[in-house]
Structure formats: structure tokens, C-alpha cells
Amino acid sequence: MPCSSPDLAALALAIKAWSLELGFQQAGITGVDLPAIHEARLQQWLAAGYQGDMDYMAAHGHKRTRPAELVPGTLRVVSLRMDYLPGETRMAQRLADPEAAYISRYALGRDYHKLIRNRLQKLAERIRLQAADLGYRAFVDSAPVLEKALAEQAGLGWTGKNTLLLNRQAGSWFFLGELFVDLPLPVDQVRPPSHCGQCSACLERCPTGDLVAPYQLDARRCISYLTIELKGSIPPELRPLIGNRVFGCDDCQLACPWNRFARPSSEADFQPRQALDNSSLIQLFAWSEAEFLERTAGSPLRRAGYERWLRNLAVGLGNAPPSAAILQALQARAEHPSALVREHVYWALQQSSS
């Protein structure tokens, strides 16, 4: 190895310092052996069908819970978090305005994947200056990695009842990234205990009841899944519960008391773009496909695609108080080439006329 044991201890400290310089708020180091309970819980979750159409969650065998099988030679995982809260966007107040479009905070700015991956690459380059033979892989929500379990074991927080990683200083408004490395770095031993206590605010706040029990989420009822991951028709019984949420949902985070301590991000890329924090459902529904592609360049919104974007907005318009403007907007899409869009527009028109 390029580094001796004392050097590895110093390198671990340096990695944490470099991560702060690169815009991360915290870094921790853990081994590759996760407690068996994580694998068992994943299998139970899959067996219950809670993953819905997300077939990739069942793919790759045990690699998701066994980092050394995913990337042979991995000895340690450097887990990092980057805060993304874009400051005061009045998005919480927009939930109370049924004609306003609500977009999850993480999706208001540029796509986080490229930004964080670039920072991880820079961190790896710094490590390589000290360990020339470094072998590594960087991941940002882009591979079968049980990132929350690894982050918890690395000391970045605890898994809350809403299934998100919580941190006493940052709540849950942060992204996670990982570096799988082949260096035997000293691991962090301090793992924060759960501080959820008797609180059940997230379970009570969820609009669709997707938190079927503490620490158990049925993605098939989750608004984030329904508006982002689901490729087909949104179940009619869930449409009225979605309200004006057209891409993602933050309700369980808005309800969490620990998010009172979250601080706004200083990353310019996480600030709202294209007035997404101040647009009406009608305005966004009027975008042509060319406009959608232009305005969502480099945005997480691209994941839904134009067809599902219109599907989601149609549901929002169907949940808004009927008006001549809404009726006109929906009728303009009534003959849309997509059967998926037409179905949801027709549903919305029925709501507007009932």
C-alpha cells in the first residue's frame, strides 16, 4: 500500500477536511459489512411488493447490501452528505394554493447527480495524491447501493420513521454520495442513536398514507413514486390525494421537527430555476414539448419526461377549484396524441364539471 497505518489515520482526517472544502457538509467512513438486518428488511420490503414498478430495486441480487460484491476489492466506503435546501421559496405556502404548482425542493434547481459526482471525483483525485494506487468508484443515487444504511453506519445520522436519513444539525434536506475505496482507512465508530422518540408527525402528515408503519414505506402510494417513477396511469383513488404536487412530495420532511435545524444551501445550482417555485399549474401545463425540453435542461424534472409531466399537471388541475381558465387549459389537451395524457385530462375535466 502507498500509505502506512499512521498515514491512513491522517488521510482519513484529511478526507473529511477536503470534503468540507469541496462543498459537502459531512463525511464519514465505514466498512463494507452491513448488519444482516438491512438485507432482511430489504427482502421483506420487496416481498410485500412495496417497490411497485421499480424493478431495479430487486435486481443485482445481494450487491445492494454487500458493497464488496458490487465493486470487488472495496474495503471502505466514504459516505458524504450535501445540503440542498434552497432557502425561502415559499413552497410550503404553495401547498395551500390549489392553483399553484408544487415541485419538491430537491428538483427546483439543477440535477444533483452531476454536481455531486464531480465533487466526488475531485475528492478521489486528492486522495490519489496521497495513495497513488487508489482504486475507487463514485456513486450518487446511481447504482445498487444501500446508501442510507451506509451513511448511518458512517455516523451521518439515523433512519427516521419516514425512512429518510435524519441528522440533528441538518434534518433530512440533503443528498448522499459515496466513494468505494480499496484503502483500509480507519472507520468511524460513533453511530448516532435514533432521535425520533414517540414522534409520529411524518406518518400523520403523509397525504396518501404511504407510511404504513414506522420505518415502512409503500412506494405504490407515495406521491414521489406516483409523479416521478410510475410510468403508467396514476390510480384514480389516489389522484384527489395528490393535490397540486406535480413532481415529488416533501410533506414528511415538512412535518419532521428536526428540519427546523436545516440550513439553506449555498450551492448556486440548488437555487430555483425557470420560476419553478412560483408558477401556476396552468402556466406549466401550457409548455410545449420543445419548451419542456429547453426549460428542464439539466433539471431533475427530465426524469418524468413530457408525457408524464402533462399527466401530473392534469391531475393537479383536476384537483383545483373549477374555473373557466382551467377548463380551457384542459380542453386544449383533450385530443393529445398520448392516451396517458388524454386519460388524465378526461378525469380532470370530470372533476371540474362535477
Describe this structure in words.
This protein has 354 residues and is α+β, with helices and mostly antiparallel strands. The protein folds into two domains: 5-85 and 110-181, no CATH class; 201-353, no CATH class. Helix content is 38%, strand content 11%. The protein contains 15 helices and ten strands. The protein has helices spanning 5-21, 36-47, 67-70, 91-94, 112-130, 147-153, 201-205, 223-229, 239-242, 251-255, 281-285, 289-295, 305-319, 324-332, 339-353; strands spanning 26-30, 76-83, 102-103, 136-139, 158-159, 165-166, 174-181, 211-213, 216-217, 245-247. The strands form four sheets. The protein has a four-stranded antiparallel sheet, sandwiched between helices. Strand 5 and strand 6 (165-166) form a beta hairpin. The radius of gyration is 22 Å and the shape is elongated. The mean pLDDT is 95.
For the termini, the CA-CA separation is: 72 Å
Order of helices and strands: HEHHEHEHEHEEEHEEHHEHHHHHH
Largest sheet: 4 strands, antiparallel
Count of helical segments? 15
The tally of structural domains comes to 2
Strand fraction band? Answer: 5-15%
Instruction: Give the CA-based shape.
Output: elongated
* Helical coverage, percent range: 25-40%
Strand order in space, largest sheet: 1-2-7-4
> How many beta-strand elements?
10
| Class of secondary structure makeup | alpha+beta
Rg measurement, Å:
22 Å
The poorly predicted ranges are: none
Integer average pLDDT:
95
